[in-house]
Design goal:
The complex is a heterodimer.
Chain A (H helix, E strand, L loop, with lengths): L1 H51 L17 H6 L3 H34 L4 H13 L2 H11 L6 H8 L14 H26 L3 H10 L4 H12 L1 H16 L3 H7 L10 H11 L3 H30 L2
Chain B lengths: L3 E10 L2 E11 L4 E5 L6 H9 L6 E6 L2 E2 L10 E4 L11 H13 L2 H4 L10 H18 L15 H13 L5 E5 L7 H18 L2 E6 L2 H7 L2 E6 L2 E6 L1 H6 L4 H6 L6 E8 L2 E4 L2 E3 L10 E6 L4 E2 L8 E11 L3 E7 L6 E7 H7 L7 E5 L5 E3 L8 H12 L1
Parallel strand pairs in B: 3-8, 3-9, 6-7, 7-8
Antiparallel strand pairs in B: 1-2, 1-4, 4-5, 9-10, 11-12, 11-14, 12-13, 14-20, 15-19, 16-17, 16-19, 17-18
Helix pairs in contact in B: 2-4, 2-5
Classes of the chains: A mainly alpha, B alpha+beta.
């Protein structure tokens, strides 16, 4: 009797484990296409780039050889690369705070509108929908020292003409202004979503507690409650700013005197004008690492302080 | 002196009139509850008192002082929200300190980093911490002061919200459905705790709820609201035993009052097969609604009392008492009767047939078609109220 029970329970558990294994297999089977695509489209290209960064391959060349980490050590001795890295960091350091603060400021202003909210939202979002290459041409004209309206204005005011894209000290700021102009709308939309999610009750409580001035409401409720949104906005903006390319390629081509060389533009020149795929791949990997580090630092360090 | 006076408050949102000529006088130290179904305007009254919502007409006086032009913080009221509205990024201690910090530190001293350099700040902050600590001890949350709201249970958050409202010693406490997010057991417990707190503080409480049990058990007086008006204001017992309006009779009491349709005759009201001898102030031959509380009916025949013939449909056994649901065969309407378990057992054998429910006509509530009380008893009560 007891033996029978034991045997049947063993059969039950055996059949259960068979079923569990079948379910697990089915699960993996369902996940396989996605996994295959992830490997094919994301992981494999990165691996290929990494492998190429260990070679001296030139585009179209028939022969190549392994050079180990040679490309990387060359990279960090390369003045042009280091300069474009520095320029990129300066660009990011201007664009990220600029577009985040402006985006938040505009979002708060737009949020308080009632009937005109949709109109303002659309206007500020317009730059996001435009093609940056086309808009670069427009900006180039706007800031042109002899033809541009801004220059005419400064001439008329007796300030003389200024050449933003020709002045080594101004060129990065000029590009950063375009970058900010393009990102503000997107950040505004994200902040608007964050603002809508703040419970009204908190502002009522703040009113009753005496935090009813604009500054107190912002500092005690709005800003802390926007923590997660701000984190997300900063990460996406940083990554977008790191990828600055269009404006440089269209307007300055790294000039004057390499003061507007940025990472992706240098990478493009090395890889697709000089056909040095090996060093270009090493730059790509370096670029990926920087972006990854930024994302990780922000996700792990700041994230812990913004979620409650 | 912190009595509260609302005079002819009206408020319109868009095209809907949410408050319609609401006047209310609350005595110093009173526990007054605004009760009503959702959308009746009770929360808006609270928000008008707090100054969160400006009224379109009428005025608010707190302690004899008109506060209409004052901002919420200047009215010295405290509010507990249904959602508690705790600041999620602040610890319990910071949440509770907030009203005092805003009151006692100036803008410079409140600045995030620079504020620490101001000479006064640390002294004031120590004082505040001591006061917060004292309130936390009263509420038995002194062990939670360093936690964030997300780490607290519903009941603990409720206490923190209470604590935040207590630290500033307000003239009036405003509570907007503070118990409705708690589970049933905790709610019953917090009911006692809140009444206890009210007794201890001796401060005016204005309490908003949709739960008539909370209104009945906690308040000195209850104002029942419907469609932006106060329908009846009185003690819980007045509202239960002597409602002036059909809406009040229906809203107060659980199980609900039985409403049966009747017709007035020369000497009373005919309801189903019973003839209730009650003086009414409407001419005979009129349709009226007769409200009978479940305890106005009894299974035992009482000499001289009229009776309704009814058939038992089902039984709700609550242990000590039972609610018996009957159907009147001629109209098909249902009535509920409250009986002790013993009475129920005694009559159990008869329930397969029609039974006679005796009606205590002296407790019947008669309402006309517009829902106003028309029996003699309410007239007497109203006369009494006027002369008093």
């Amino acid at each position: 009797m007891t033996a029978g029970v034991a045997a049947s329970s063993r059969r039950v558990s055996a059949s259960r484990s068979v079923q569990m294994r079948a379910e697990a297999l089915a699960g993996y089977a369902f996940a396989t296409p996605a996994l295959f695509l992830i490997i094919l489209l994301l992981i494999a290209p990165i691996m290929v780039v990494f492998l190429m960064s260990l070679t001296d391959y030139q585009l179209g060349a028939l022969k190549w050889s392994w050079v180990g980490l040679g490309n990387y050590s060359d990279l960090f001795a390369d003045r042009i690369f280091l300069r474009s890295l520095g320029n990129t960091f300066i660009y990011v350091a201007i664009v990220v705070p600029g577009s985040v603060i402006f985006g938040l400021f505009i979002a708060i202003l737009v949020q308080e509108r009632t009937t005109s909210k949709a109109i303002y939202q659309t206007i500020f979002f317009l730059p996001v929908t435009t093609t940056l290459i086309a808009m670069s041409v427009v900006w180039h004209f706007l800031l042109n020292p002899s033809l541009g309206p801004l220059s005419s204005l400064s001439r008329a005011m007796g300030l003389g003409e200024f050449d933003v894209f020709g002045d080594p000290d101004l060129v990065l700021f000029g590009l950063a202004v375009i970058g900010i102009w393009q990102l503000v709308g997107f950040n505004m939309i994200l902040f608007l979503a964050g603002l809508t999610a703040i419970p009204r009750d908190l502002y009522d409580a703040a009113d009753i507690d005496g935090a009813d001035g604009a500054w107190d409401r912002f500092a005690r409720v709005t800003w802390p409650m926007l923590g997660p949104t701000t984190l997300f906005v900063v990460v996406t903006t940083t990554i977008t700013a790191f990828r600055v390319f269009d404006t440089v390629a269209v307007i300055t081509r790294g000039n004057p005197m390499g003061r507007s060389d940025v990472l992706l533009y240098t990478l493009y020149k090395v890889g697709f004008q000089d056909f040095n795929i090996g060093p270009a791949s090493a730059m790509t990997i370096a670029f990926l690492v920087f972006v990854l580090v930024v994302a990780l630092v922000q996700a792990f360090v700041i994230d812990r302080r913004t979620h409650y | 002196m912190s009595n509260l006076e609302l005079t002819a408050i009206s408020k319109t949102f868009g095209t809907t009139r949410v408050l319609n000529d609401v006047s209310l006088s609350v005595r110093d130290g009173e526990f007054l509850t605004l009760v009503g179904a959702s959308g009746c305007g009770k929360s808006t009254v609270l928000r008008v008192i707090a100054g969160l919502e400006p009224q379109d007409a009428g005025s608010v006086h707190i302690g004899g002082r008109a506060v209409d032009q004052l901002r919420p913080k200047q009215r010295n009221v405290a509010m507990v929200f249904q959602s508690y509205a705790l600041y999620p990024h602040m610890s319990v201690a910071e949440n509770m300190s907030m009203p005092l910090v805003m009151q006692r530190l100036n803008l410079a001293e409140r600045l995030p980093l620079l504020g620490r350099l101001m000479p006064n700040r640390s002294r004031v902050m120590t004082e505040i911490a001591a006061e917060v600590d004292a309130v936390a001890r009263q509420l038995q949350i002194e062990g939670l002061l360093s936690r964030k709201p997300a780490q607290l249970s519903g009941g603990q958050r409720q206490r923190v919200a209470l604590g935040r409202s207590m630290v500033r010693h307000p003239d009036v406490f405003l509570m907007d459905e503070p118990l409705s997010n708690l589970d049933a057991k905790l709610r019953v417990h917090m009911r006692t705790e809140l009444t206890e707190l009210h007794r201890r503080l001796g401060v005016t409480f204005i309490y908003v709820t949709h739960d008539q049990v909370e209104a009945m058990t906690m308040s000195d007086r209850v104002a029942l609201m419907d469609e932006g008006r106060i329908v009846q204001l009185g003690t819980p017992s007045e509202l239960y035993h002597n409602p002036t309006d059909l809406r009040v009779a229906r809203f107060i009491g659980s199980p609900q009052v039985n409403i049966l349709s009747g017709t007035t005759t020369g000497d009373g009201v005919a309801v189903s097969d019973a003839m209730l001898q009650i003086p009414v102030s409407v001419p005979s031959g009129q349709e009226v609604s007769v409200g009978l509380r479940p305890e106005a009916l009894s299974l035992d025949a009482v000499a001289g009392r009229p009776h309704l013939s009814a058939k038992l449909s089902h039984v709700e056994n609550l242990g000590a008492e039972v609610f018996l649901h009957f159907v009147l065969p001629d109209t098909g309407s249902g009535v509920v009767l409250r009986a002790t378990l013993d009475t129920y057992e005694k009559h159990k054998s008869r329930f397969d047939r029609l039974v006679h429910l005796s009606v205590d006509a002296s407790r019947a509530l008669v309402f006309d078609a517009a829902g106003h009380r028309v029996d003699g008893r309410v007239q007497a009560a109203l006369r009494l109220a006027v002369s008093a």
